[in-house]
Amino acid sequence: MDKVRAFMQALWVQRFWVLSVVGVIAAVVCWMMAAGTLQDQYQAEKSEILGKFTDMQTIAGKDFHGNEVINAKEREEASKIAASVEDLWKRLFDHQRKEVLFWPDVLG
Q1: What is the pLDDT of residues 62-102, one digit of tens each?
Q2: Going by C-beta distance under 8 Å and a sequence separation of 6 or more, which residues neighbour residue 74?
């Protein structure tokens, strides 16, 4: 009993260090539990996203054999979209040239 009492007295004297170690261990255990849960959620979301990408690749990989009328209409729509994108880019560039890309009068 005297040995236990001596041990408890030494433990009481060093209580700051004992409680510090217990606190660090508790923090590490909580962190490990939280990190494990987040890792599981990350893996689940990642596998779902990769599954969607593979679904899209299989859909994109299928060949579409339309007739000449459909192919011509598709080319016409693609050229309209390309022309609208080019027009938008030109307008944005002109706006930037007027509003952003100029030398201030102070610099001469």
Answers
A1: 777 778 888 889 899 999 999 999 999 999 999 998 888 87
A2: 66
DSSP 64: -
Handedness of CA 36, 39, 45, 51 (dihedral sign): negative
66 Cβ contact list (under 8 Å, min separation 6): 74
Q: Are 24 and 17 in contact (CB under 8 A)?
A: no
Task: Find where tokens 């390309």 sit.
Answer: 82
Tokens of 66: 């339309």
Q: Tens of pLDDT along 29-69? A: 999 998 998 999 999 999 999 999 999 988 887 777 778 88
Reported pTM: 0.40
The amino acid present at 58, given as its one-letter code, is T
